[in-house]
Amino acid sequence: MNVERQTVRSQLREHKRLTLYSIIGTVVHFLLLLYFIFDEQEPLIYYNIVALSCWLYCFYFLRKKDYYRIAILTSLVMLIQLNLVTILYGTESGVLMGLWPLACIFVINTRTRMVAGTVFASVCLISFILLSLYAPVSTEDGFIPGSLEIFILVTGAIMVSAVMSIKSAFRARRNKMIYIANHDTLTGLKNRRFFTTFIAHRQDVIRREGTRFCLALGDIDHFKQINDQHGHQMGDAVLVAIAACFREISAQSDVICRWGGEEFLIFIPESDISMAYPVLEAIREVISDQNIDGINTTISFGVVESDGSEALDELFKAADLLLYKAKQSGRNRVEYE
Fold this sequence. Notes:
two-stranded antiparallel ribbon, 11% strand, 337 residues, 68% helix, 2 domains, 11 helices, alpha+beta, Alpha-Beta Plaits
């Protein structure tokens, strides 16, 4: 899976999460409005009408994909709500406990700017301290029975969820960075950095096991002419199409690398020339049969066999000489010793 596709899926998941978040927030505030009407708490009735309107307005931001405004608007709505409910029902209601997960959710939101996150978290902390010191412990109007225990459980669950969310985000970011470090961004094939490390490791294993492998160096024929006559965008399209051919035909155990420019390296394990040659011929034929936006492209290969005793530079030099021979012999062919 390439990075672009992962990014699109991540955006879709975020949109779904925020849609669910907006639905839950709207339903909760509607139920709270009914409760405050029943309990005849006029300040909270009026405020919840405004809060409910804000939550409904979030669906407009969802259509616009303005996720940052959703984070700002809903966080401010909940901050004011938690303060008002604590003042009117007392600290024993447990409502002020909601300030902690509120601060966490706002700060870890991927759309939140660092300054805004720091300011909002500081406001939540100051509100918690001031409410703990000056808000009444209880009032004549009791809140929902067992509300303290409910808020402690909910707060704990949200805090744990926030920690897991951070861990998941770090894991996703790490995996993305590993992918970027080891793959060519255009074709999605392994890159030179990965291949150099990989082949050194595999050579040690092959020497110990007494097996053999083949290394093929491929180069797209007349690639400079494609760029000069049709533009670099067409050149990129050719590279992507050829990379797709490699993935389609080669075995899962084969490792394919974009070595640089229009050059590719293919590692074929546990093989000799007699086994690797048909594979490379099949790749060559499929590529030569392709028509990419009116352009017929061919590729030439030089392939060497090794028992793992040679250095990568030696193998590459030998494969490069064979590739040069293929070019001199008319291109669109596989040369081997």
